[in-house]
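FIELD: query
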Amino acid sequence: MTKETSLKQRTIKGLFWSFSDLVANQGIQFLIQIILARLLLPEHFGLVGMILVLIAISNALIESGMVQALVREQNSTQAEYSTVFFFNLFMALALYGVLFCAAPIISDFFRTGELTLIIRILSIGLIINSFGMIQRAQIIKKLDFRKQTIVNIVAGIVSGVVAVICALCGLGVWSLVIKILCMQLFQSVLFWYFNRWIPSFLFKYESFKKLFGFGSKLMLAGLLSTFYSNIFNIIIGRMYSATRLGYYSNAQKLNEVASSSITSALQSVTYPVLSSIQNDEEKLKYGFKKIIRISTFIHFPLMIGLAAIANPLVYLLFGEKWMPMAIYFQLLCIAGMMYPLHAINLNILQVKGKANLYLYLSILKKIMLTIYIFIAIWLDTGVLGLLGAAILDSYVSFLINGFFSGKEIGYSSREQLKDVSFFYAASIIMGLVVYLSGMMLPGNTLVKLIPQVLVGLVLYWAMCTIAKVKELREFSDIISPIVKKLLGKKGTKLAQ
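FIELD: result
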């Protein structure tokens, strides 16, 4: 077996388990989210949404980019793993203390007194998370996404069941808090169970300096990204209401099931794979181009299709009280179209060790987004104006990322746009037809939804077939082993 064949098999295997994680874990989480949305009020989700930005920023500080640095290192030592483990634990304890003391101030900022206790309880998850970071990094480095999938599925089911029981018992917003803590606890425990690594009681300054030198740039970039990806939670929670934030939070969660989750799956698989061929320029460019095309072949029609069926989808899943979130979801889908391109382009900069450039680009893009947001607030365009700013930022950011990553491997953003232009145009045409067909059909739920989905699938497949898009065959090559694995049949040929 050649090295290239082995790499391809590892990539397909990684994609299988990573997308299995996506379908199973995110599917389970989303089903639980639907049940909780029907049991709880939008304002309950809004209250938790105000806090999650603080938790996300704290987790980025705890990790400090050093986990990514470990994944990138081809021969990490026990000393390096142990050093990062104890650094993560120390940071988690320190940040918990900061959030505990700052909880009343944060509550005053959002003008919601009950946030104080919620912050102090929810922040315990920082300490819990820090215990499983090295185990997760080692599993990712081995491309063992099967174990990661099992961990997320089991933790998701257990935490979800507990949360639903709490909601049925009338615990309200605390159902969501308990769900998050249970998820983090079971993930950490299971990562330890599946990856029996024990830290040594040592802290090597040389190891810390080497990893932090690379990881700190990623940490700062990650902090900016985390803050700005949650900035709308802060603005909506502060300027509008918990109910409005609840609509936005669930629209974002629905969007993440299709957009951010797929992006995360692609990024988690492609980063270690591309890292393994980082010194072979020709192979790196070829692999990057293949990933770009296959990901947009899938992602573009998915996001446009979801935007087209937003109204009947929201009505069916969440009920009439959640219908104001439909327009938020549509705009988030349009912004989310470019997420895989962002992630894969940024992977190239990390693979090439361009941590400084990665950081500088992150700062530049956030400055631009800040300008867009200030304009939206100044014009008093409300939540819709903020989401319009997110769409503009998504497309401009891709052009910036693509320009600099393209220079590293000789594959410019213009070439990338050319390669994905057919998928974009075909998706837009498909989306318009699906949306118009929904306007002509009666009813609000399945009466519209099923015909719209069928029309979209058939139309997109027909356009790709007529254009002789080779990604149809490549998608089949990826899906075929997955179907064989699921059905337990060998030699089964996937129908074209």
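FIELD: remark
The first helix runs from residue 3 to 39.
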